[in-house]
Amino acid sequence: MKEQRISDTSKRLMIGTALFFDVLQSFIGLFHFIPIAGNFLAAILAYSISIFAFLTLFVWFTMKGVSFFRGRKAGRRALMWMSEYILILNSLPIPGWTLYTWYTIKLAQEEDKEKMEKKEGGNLRLVKGVGDTSGGKYRKAA
């Protein structure tokens, strides 16, 4: 029986990391209130954080076996990702990295469930044992 690619612990850590990047970018948006140099500094720092966030999450998802750009609804995920590189959208208080990470995890879990249903040939349910921190396993419903 194969486990999920992204466990509950990894899911929480990934969303927490993405939320950290979003909060950091929101604080950097305050630099726009500094005359002249503030706009330049905010733009440079915002792009730097976006690049670092992308690389961090890309490597993390790749290590878990989840593709950032392939699979179901890849176009929708690409639009969410690109919104982080548009300066005006990036400075809005919308948690773009957090939403992108949550959506990618949701799609990965749906893909895992569909693969297990095809493999097992029936209805599956998530079974967690006592003290199970691995995120659970899909098993055939009795």
Task: Record the SSE blueprint.
Layout: H1 8-28, H2 37-63, H3 74-82, H4 87-91, H5 96-120, E1 124-127, E2 137-140
Antiparallel strand pairs: 1-2
Helix pairs in contact: 1-2, 1-5
Helix content: 55-70%
| Strand residues, percent | 5-15%
Please state the structural category: mainly alpha
Shape: elongated
Number of helices: 5
Number of E strands = 2
**First-to-last CA distance:** 15 Å
- Main-sheet strand order equals 1-2
The string of secondary-structure elements, in order, is: HHHHHEE
Largest sheet: 2 strands, antiparallel
Q: Detail the poorly predicted runs.
A: none
Mean pLDDT: 77
Radius of gyration over all CA atoms, rounded: 18 Å
Compose a concise summary of this entry.
Helices cover 61% and strands 6% of the residues. With 142 residues, the chain is mainly alpha-helical.
